[in-house]
Structure formats: structure tokens, C-alpha cells
């Protein structure tokens, strides 16, 4: 079992890029592998909420949204940390523009939306390996809302509020039923406190050593 810290992930990602792939392709591989697994579990078109932060963790969610909508899913996308995204997340946001089945909803509209719309799947891409410190209040509020909602709760790489390196868990951590992690497990995935908030953990190959 491969277990990599955030710094080790960055090093292996860089090695893969030096060997000829690109960061964009790695993100496509991550979102693609997660979407493929979800589609195996949920072969019928369904309705998903994709909750993104501003970094590449959200970018993985945006790739998933594109691939799920291509299979007939309806995906609502929300950015909870503003609209200034990492370059790769922005590239993948643009790829969603004008696609059938994709709607963008404002973060302030999320509580009302969750009250009136039932989602089959909630995909959480707020923070991944780039997270350090405390959860911003807006993210803690969002996680509380998601935790209280119906639908399969899916975390990308790790549930937001879980520090992948240390296993520290915020009180308002996203409580996932299924966690897709990319390239390798992270230290928190094999700690009891971390495992308690990840649900089933599926480690997906994204083409790094
Ligand atoms: N490593 C790989 O091989 C791949 C990783 N992928 C995915 O990308 C994320 C890591 O993305 P990154 O952009 O580095 O970080 P995050 O998305 O987790 O968010 C970083 C973003 O958030 C800010 N931030 C961090 N802590 C806080 C805080 N306490 N409060 C407020 N804001 C915070 C930070 O400054 C950044 O702006 C990885 O997990 C994978 O999901 C690839 O897509 C595939 C290859
Ligand atoms: K996440």
C-alpha cells in the first residue's frame, strides 16, 4: 500500500510531469477515475451537487461533473471559496460552460437549494492535499449543511476538515461515506480518526509512481 504525504504527492506528480505527462492530464485522470467508479455504482443517470473550493481538489470535481453530464447526469456546481480558481480548476470550469445538465449555483443560494432539491450524490472537492490550518467559517457552515443532507456523500482525496498529513479532524469535517483518493493513500487514511470520517476509501490510479 502506497502512503504519501502532501509533499511526497507533489514530488511524485512532478516526476510524472517530468516523464512526459502534464498536471492537466493528472487532473483529468483523477476526475476520470472517480467518475468511472461512481458510474459503475450508479449506472442510471442521477443528480449530483459538486461543491468546489478554489484549488485543484475542486478541479477534480469539475472534471467529474463534465464526465457525469456526458452520461446524462444533472450536476449543480457551487464554489464556496469565491470565483478566483487555480489555473487548472479554471480551465475545467470553462469546459462546463453551456453544457447540458450543468448549472452553477451561488454559494449564498446553497442552503435554500439543499432545502428544496434532493441530490443523489454530494461530491465534495473543497480542500485536498493543499489544506492547512483551520476551516474557514464559510466552509464549516457548508460542511454542516452537507452533512445534514440526504444523498451519497463522496469526498475527493480526503474529506474537507481532515488534514491528510496529520490526521487532525475539525469538528465540522465533511462526513463522507465514500472517499476517492488519488495516486496513493494519505497518512490520515490509515489513522483511526481519519478513517472514521472517510467511509469506504478507494485509491485510484492517476498515472504517478
Ligand atoms: N498531487 C497530485 O498528483 C494531484 C492532485 N490533484 C488534486 O489536487 C489536490 C490538491 O490541490 P491544491 O490546489 O494543491 O490544494 P487544494 O485544492 O486542497 O486547496 C488549496 C487552496 O486552498 C487554500 N487553503 C489551504 N488551507 C486553507 C485554509 N485553512 N483556509 C483557507 N484557504 C486555505 C490554499 O491557499 C489553496 O488556494 C489534491 O488533493 C487532488 O485532489 C490533481 O487533480 C491530480 C494530481
Ligand atoms: K475534499
TrEMBL record:
K(+) binds at residues 57, 160. Keywords: Isomerase, Metal-binding, NAD, NADP, Nucleotide-binding, Potassium. The keyword Acetylation does not apply. Its EC number is 5.1.99.6. It catalyses: (6R)-NADPHX = (6S)-NADPHX; (6R)-NADHX = (6S)-NADHX. Its cofactor is K(+). Residues 9-209 form the YjeF N-terminal domain. One of its GO terms (molecular function) is NAD(P)HX epimerase activity. (6S)-NADPHX binds at residues 56-60, 128-134, 157. Binds 1 potassium ion per subunit. It is an enzyme of class 5 (isomerase). Belongs to the NnrE/AIBP family. Catalyzes the epimerization of the S- and R-forms of NAD(P)HX, a damaged form of NAD(P)H that is a result of enzymatic or heat-dependent hydration. This is a prerequisite for the S-specific NAD(P)H-hydrate dehydratase to allow the repair of both epimers of NAD(P)HX. This is NAD(P)H-hydrate epimerase. It comes from Uruburuella suis.
Amino acid at each position: 500500500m502506497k502512503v504519501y504525504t502532501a509533499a511526497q504527492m507533489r514530488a511524485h506528480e512532478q516526476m510524472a510531469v517530468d516523464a512526459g505527462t502534464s498536471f492537466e492530464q493528472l487532473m483529468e485522470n483523477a476526475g476520470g477515475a472517480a467518475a468511472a467508479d461512481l458510474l459503475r455504482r450508479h449506472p442510471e443517470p442521477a443528480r449530483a451537487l459538486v461543491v468546489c473550493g478554489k484549488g485543484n481538489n475542486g478541479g477534480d470535481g469539475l472534471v467529474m461533473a463534465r464526465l457525469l453530464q456526458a452520461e446524462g447526469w444533472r450536476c449543480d456546481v457551487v464554489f464556496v471559496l469565491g470565483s478566483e480558481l487555480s489555473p487548472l480548476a479554471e480551465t475545467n470550469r470553462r469546459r462546463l460552460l453551456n453544457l447540458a445538465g450543468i448549472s452553477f449555483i451561488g454559494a449564498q443560494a446553497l442552503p435554500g437549494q439543499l432545502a428544496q432539491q434532493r441530490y443523489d450524490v454530494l461530491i465534495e472537492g473543497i480542500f485536498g492535499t493543499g489544506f492547512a490550518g483551520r476551516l474557514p467559517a464559510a466552509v464549516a457552515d457548508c460542511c454542516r449543511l452537507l452533512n445534514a443532507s440526504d444523498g451519497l456523500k463522496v469526498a475527493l482525496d480526503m474529506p474537507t476538515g481532515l488534514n491528510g498529513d496529520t490526521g487532525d479532524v475539525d469538528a465540522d469535517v465533511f462526513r463522507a461515506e465514500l472517499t476517492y483518493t488519488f495516486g496513493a493513500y494519505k497518512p490520515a487514511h490509515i489513522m483511526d480518526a481519519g478513517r472514521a470520517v472517510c467511509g469506504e476509501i478507494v485509491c485510484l490510479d492517476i498515472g504517478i509512481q
